[in-house]
Amino acid sequence: MVDLRRRTRLGMGPCQGELCSYRAASLFSEYGQVSGCQSSHLLVDFLEERWKGIKPIFWGDALREAEFSYWIYEGLLGASDLPSFDSATEKQQ
């Protein structure tokens, strides 16, 4: 997804990819580029990288938006509970 970000500026808007990154990750899986598990890990890695740059400046509305995004990715998608990529690959074999 990093290459896609460089080509299309994915994740560089006001929301820093919070609203478009999961769509991009699903397209990778939908078009057969990666498996669903790999797509999930691409998403988590991408979001963690984007958060590195904006985390130090959270305040006011930005902090509320970050909490909302955290709730979406952790509460609804369970991003921190994903199995490791290695263990998921072993189960498929």
UniProtKB/TrEMBL annotation:
EC nos: 1.1.5.3
Class of this enzyme: oxidoreductase
Domain of life per record: Bacteria
Record keywords, A-Z: Oxidoreductase
InterPro entries per UniProt: BFD-like_2Fe2S-bd_dom_sf
GO molecular function ontology, one term from the record: glycerol-3-phosphate dehydrogenase (quinone) activity
Name listed for the protein in its UniProt record: sn-glycerol-3-phosphate dehydrogenase subunit A
Higher taxonomy: Bacteria, Pseudomonadati, Pseudomonadota, Gammaproteobacteria, Vibrionales
